Amino acid sequence: MKRLLLILLVLSGTAQAQLPDLVTGRAFVTGTRLETRIDGLATALRHVLVKRSGNWALEEDPRVDRIAAHAESLLADLAYLDRMTDLPRHDEQGTRDRPFDLIARFAPDKLDEALRSLGERPYLAPRPDIVVQIDIDDHGEKLKLSADGEADERQRQALLAAADRFGLHVVLTPREGSSPAINRRGAVLSGSLVWSEADFGWVGSWKLQGLGPQRSWGIKGVSFDEAYRNAMAGTLAALTHHKLPTP
């Protein structure tokens, strides 16, 4: 019952309070064996350290290796979410190769101690809404990323997943009709995402306004999931006064 409750809390987050969850991370794992759990917890912890501090560089910082190797010691609770829960289980199918989302909630005081050991500190101030305005060129098909379009559904889900990973709340406008009321105290992330044959992937160009001086950055030759993670990483970096990501 405790694990089920945790799953529900993690999935709903603190959306009703419009506050980001800065202690919970998740990782894809195969099975629930100890060896996959260790790697999954290390991945989840890296994501949380980035989200809580705002420093995207911690994701690949070798200094985090020693902390991530003992991620379980920072753990408050964990749960497994079966990705195939709606599919019938075959008689010969066990859980060893079954895909799960490992959902890990870490202790805030232990997270902050880990950040201090890296010369970082948690960024716990309220985070503004990020109004997102992105033009997409998908192999010549042009559209705007919207709140309700069908053609951009996969990209919208990628953006929302990236925003959740970095502890940000994004606002998209509807494809047609009047725009919803937007808190103008929020920041505006605008830019373009273009498929490039020459770069063997997507090229993202971003411009952020409303969090001090205008900031610009980008990425190329990646999946659109990675492009949106780059957009959210840069936005959080600007908010928390860290260096922007570089290609």
Outline the secondary-structure elements.
Blueprint: H1 2-12, E1 24-30, H2 34-53, H3 65-68, E2 75-82, E3 99-106, H4 108-117, E4 130-138, E5 141-144, H5 153-165, E6 170-171, E7 187-196, E8 201-209, E9 215-222, H6 224-239
Parallel strand pairs: 4-6, 4-7
Antiparallel strand pairs: 1-3, 2-3, 4-5, 7-8, 8-9
Helix pairs in contact: 5-6
Folded structure, characterized:
- There is one protein chain.
- By secondary structure, the protein is α+β, with helices and mostly antiparallel strands.
- The chain folds into 2 domains: 116 residues, no CATH class; 110 residues, Double Stranded RNA Binding Domain (2-Layer Sandwich), CATH 3.30.160.
- It is 30% helix and 26% strand.
- A hairpin with a 5-residue loop joins strand 8 and strand 9.
- Helix 5 runs parallel beside helix 6.
Portion of residues in beta strands equals 25-35%
User: Helical stretch count?
Assistant: 6
The helix content, as a percent range, equals 25-40%
Give the overall pLDDT as a whole number: 86
Principal-axis shape equals globular
Q: Could you give the order of the helices and strands?
A: HEHHEEHEEHEEEEH
User: What distance lies between the first and last C-alpha atoms, to the nearest angstrom?
Assistant: 45 Å
Give the low-pLDDT segments. Answer: 1-18
Biggest sheet details: 6 strands, mixed
Q: What assembly state would you assign to the polypeptide chains in this entry? A: single chain
> What's the total count of β strands?
9
Kindly provide the radius of gyration, computed on alpha-carbon positions and rounded to a whole number of angstroms.
Answer: 19 Å
> How many discrete domains?
2
The helix-and-strand class reads alpha+beta
